[in-house]
Amino acid sequence: MVTSYHITRYTAHSKETEMSRKGQLAQLHRLQEDERIRAQEEDIKREKKDLMNATWTQSLEESSQNKMLKRKHKEMQRELELTNKSIATLRKNRLRELIMKEELEYEKELNSIGLTIHKERL
Fold first, then answer.
1. Are 99 and 92 in contact (CB under 8 A)?
2. What ranges does the record give for the region Disordered, renumbered to this chain (predicted)?
3. Among the ranges 22-36, 67-81, 106-120, which has the highest mean pLDDT value?
4. Residue-range domain boundaries for the chain
5. Phi-psi region of 114 (alpha: psi -120 to 50; beta: other; left: phi over 0)
6. What is the pTM of this model?
7. Virtual CA dihedral for 13, 18, 22, 23, nearest 10 degrees?
8. For residue 81, with 0-12 CB atoms within 10 Å meaning exposed, 13-18 middle and 19 or more buried, which class applies?
């Protein structure tokens, strides 16, 4: 009977060991699966962060380009205003010179026929 006891005990122990091994393998498999999932989650987080940075950089570039275009447009407007002002001033000066020249010619013509223009002094 002693031998059967050992055999029974060995068989029971063997079943426990086999079940224990299966449990350990299952646990190891779960741990590996958890590790794989954690690595995937980290990859997803990293990709989200990269995407967010890329989106932010792109929007920053677009806004800086828009600001640059607006600034250039304002500069062009200002240059046009200054150019128009200088052209208007130049035209006024030339018109003034033309009027003075014509006035002198008119006075010469009147003087040649013996007439003068009455100028009131203030």
1. no
2. 14-34
3. 67-81
4. 1-92
5. left
6. 0.46
7. 0
8. exposed
